[in-house]
Every structure is written in structure tokens, then in C-alpha cells.
Amino acid sequence: xxxxxDFDLSKKTVLIRCDFNVPMKDGKILDDTRIRKALDTIEYAxxxxxxxxxxxxxxxxxxxxxxxxxxxxxxxxRLEELLKxxxxxxxxxxxxxxxxxxxxxKEKEVLLLENTRFQDLDGKKESxxxxxxxxxxxxxxxxxxxxxxxxxxxxxxxxxxxxSFLPTGIGFLVEKEISVLKSxxxxxxxxxxxxxxSKIKDKIGIIKKFAPKCDKILIGGAMAATFLEAxxxxxxxxxxxxxxxxxCKEMLKKYSSKIILPVDFRCAKQxxxxxxxxxxxxxxxxxxxxxxxxxxxxxxxxNHLKDAKTVLWNGPLGAYEFSSYKKGTKEILLYLKDEKEKxxxxxxxxxxxxxAMENHLENDLYHLSTGGGATLHYLxxxxxxxxxxxxxxxxxxxSQFQ
Length: 402
Prior knowledge:
Layout: E1 13-17, E2 24-25, E3 28-29, H1 33-37, H2 39-47, E4 51-55, H3 66-69, H4 73-83, E5 87-90, H5 96-104, E6 110-113, H6 131-139, E7 143-146, H7 157-161, E8 168-170, H8 172-183, E9 191-195, H9 204-210, E10 216-219, H10 223-230, H11 245-254, E11 259-260, E12 264-268, E13 277-280, E14 289-293, H12 295-305, E15 310-314, H13 327-338, E16 344-347, H14 350-358, E17 367-368, H15 373-381, H16 385-392
């Protein structure tokens, strides 16, 4: 697969699809990780004397009023600070203004177009991979570099569409993501899989894929309640997915020696930030809601992890959005941090990565994936729809706008 290194970028207009889908509140960026992760590719293109045009989406744009809160203008300002140079911004991503700005662009200059999802207001052209929209964007450049790993499971006009019309490769961020995730298919053992979050449906593929390969599967979060009910426990009013109980029973039967479930929880009678009560799994009452793994489960999980060489983690172990139920996830993260010299920990999935970032562990774990759904899709299928498009691309199509 071609990377940005395989192209002569000098004096070329290089389109780079980034993933600037950062968390925002009141127009302020809460976490700039995805912007910082894009810098290597952007700076490489600048160093090679390219004219750089950046495209990205931000959130969902369903109605005109969404434009104000989903603008990439705060990203442009942060990008200028990180690059320590001017970043030209166009408050649109199509039209004459875009064409004029790209035409005026000089070598080593950077231009950021407005949110590509603004085009979803017109018949969802971005999300539905409208060919005329993809052609327009392709007409802006000579080379297309996709460095937006978090969107590589989506066949959008700005991801798979542009790749149909321009010579295409991947950036450094995507290259690293694929290299790390690919290594998990032959990971050093003992190999431990940690799964949390609420929806078993989202984890079926990864369970089926890695259950035969890994040594243990530690299960927390709300999905643990479904597994425990499948095993015959009374889980009270805890969130569970009854439709997946047969699947859980099948997995428990097939991998009884591998699947490790919680033995206690921090519970409450309602989902709120109020401090809960720790209870053994056998003591849950009918109105108890399990909201975090308990102290004994934390110690059990650490004990299973102590000899691990590889850990893949997806999903928080409790209702992490509430401060009272962060302890299980935080303690296991800090344990893996302390063992980083001997345990290669790969954290995948937006919520779990957010937990790690909140605890300032971005440099203390082997890899924090920038992809949520993309990470899961790659681990399940060992490919992604956009990666396949990059591999097939030969730049033979031409845009009608060129």
C-alpha cells in the first residue's frame, strides 16, 4: 500500500483527509489529540514543498443550525498554534471561494476547508459518497493522502470518493494504526482481552475473532450483566441485553476457562452521580443497578493481568461518565501504566481512549487508537472499506472539473 513517502510532493497540491472530529463544548476544543496526531503528515507535506489542503468532518450536521456549533474554525486556530504558522481557512468546502483559495495557494502553505459534513444538508452528499462532490474535491489537488483512520470504515465522498479520482496513499497516522492493530493477530502471549461498555452487539465480532487467540477475556461494564445473567446470576435492575443471552451462553460454554466475569459491583438504585454501595454478585437486590466493578473484581483483574505480555482493551469497566463510577477503569489503567515495561497495552475505542486521556496516560501506554468504530471493524475483518479503495487505486480516473 502506498504511503505519503511514495509520492513526489514538490509543488503539488496535496489533499489530506484528516480526522479533526474532536470533542467540543461551547466552541472550545476539549481534547486536541486528533489534531496533534495529524501533525506528522501535514508537516512532512510542507517540508516536501507541497501546497497542503486539509479536509475533515466534525460531528453530524442534520440541519442548518448545526453549522454554527460544528464549524472547524476552532480547529484552524488550534492548528495554527501547533504548526506555529498561518493556516488559511475557507468557511465553505465547495464553490468558487474554495477554487480561488486553492488556486492562490503557495508551496508550504496550509489551507483548511470547512466541515465536509456541511454537504450532508444537500441530500447527504458527503455521507452517501456523491460522485459529483467527490469529483469536485478531487479537482482541487494532484495527490490524495488519507490520514483519517477514524473514518476508514465509512464510504464517504471525502474518504473513498476522492480516492477514485486521484493517486492515493495513506499518511503516517493511518500507517501506525494499521501496523499496531495488525500486530495483534500474532501478539506475544499471554494475550489478555479486556472488554467493557454497554453493547454486546458492538463486541460480537471482536469476541469471535480473538477468543480463540487470547488467553483470557476480562469482561466489565454493563455487558458483564448480560454474561452473568446467562450464567444464572440475579443481576437486579442492571442494564442487560436479553436478546444476546443465548450468545453469551454459547461463549461461556465454549470458552469457560478464558472468560473472567466480575464477582462484585458498586451498585445504586438509580443511575446518577451519587455514591453507590459495593455488593457481592450474590447479594444484588431486584432494584440494584451495577454501575462499576467492585474492589475484589479489580484485584482479580490485576491478578490475571500480572503475567500478560499483550493487552487489547475496548470499553470502560463502569459508567465512566459519572465520577462515582470511574474507579474500576482508572485503577486498571494505572496498573497497566505501572506495568508498561512488560505489558504492551493497546487501547481501542473512543470511550476507553477518553478515559486514558483524562488520566494523562497518552505517553504511558503502548498505543491509544484514534479510531472507535474503525478500530473494531479492522480487528474484526483485518481490513477497512477505505483501505481497500486505497489499495485498488491507480489514479486512472479523471475528474470532470480538471
